[in-house]
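1st attempt posting a full record on here, be nice pls
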Amino acid sequence: MLTEARLHARATGKREAVFGGLIELARPKDWIKNVFVVLPVPFAIAAGSHFELNPFVWGLCGFCLINSAIYTFNDWLDAEADRLHPQKCRRPLAAETVPPVAAAALMAVFLLAGIGLCLATGKLAAVWIVLVYVAINVAYSLGAKHVALLDVFFLSSGFVIRVLLGCVLLSAAPSAWLLLCTSALALFLGFAKRRADLLSGIDRNHRPSLRQYSQQFLDQALAICAGVALLSYALYSIEAKVLLPGREMAPMPFVAYGILNYLRLAIGENVGGSPVEVAFTSRSTQLCAIGWAVAVTWSLGLW
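the predicted structure (as tokens):
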């Protein structure tokens, strides 16, 4: 009886470990990046777009599931290399707590469910956008991530795609200045990630693109992208017709503080390897985001 109880407990523990590993593979914490899908909402409402909650929520949830499918695919491809990494060796596939077959099944379910939810929005353009997102990320995982600059461009494209998806779900045309600002900010985050990778001493065999980067280049790239992001947001604020006269620059201090504070963290404290971790752990970043949301809704005349 004791042996049977131990076997049962061991089997139960293994099932729980697999279930927990599958949740970890999905990386629900990283769904916070999809705040970029939501960013166009107040601007579109102020511009007079009709906001339909259900299609928007379906598209957002579908994109979250597709994100998880991509994360699983990337971990599945990188399992062998991750075992040589000091932190990534604890990932479920690298640590072998989740069988590859279970990961493949999870990936397929998330991908099909995500595309299905995007189809349910009734907006064909949303489906095309998520398919482009999938194609870019597959290309990134299969080799683009090993090429300097190309890796950061592929990474940053995901944030721009999120904004475009939000605009499509809202049936709103994206502003060229807003897309430029998003692109510059996304490149800024991508270069900050590579800088953190470079200084963390990651094996160049694990991340070949790091051989083609230097700290000096990445510092300069960060400064350039930060400047472009700030300038493009300022020009958008000046030219955007949806912002009320006299209120258009209200969010600018929060934008400037947020970008410069992240630059300080990336260069001064070698933080920036994961914008998700910064979002969850940096109190100043959280307060800045709240301040920006309050200021931008006020500048749009929503309250």
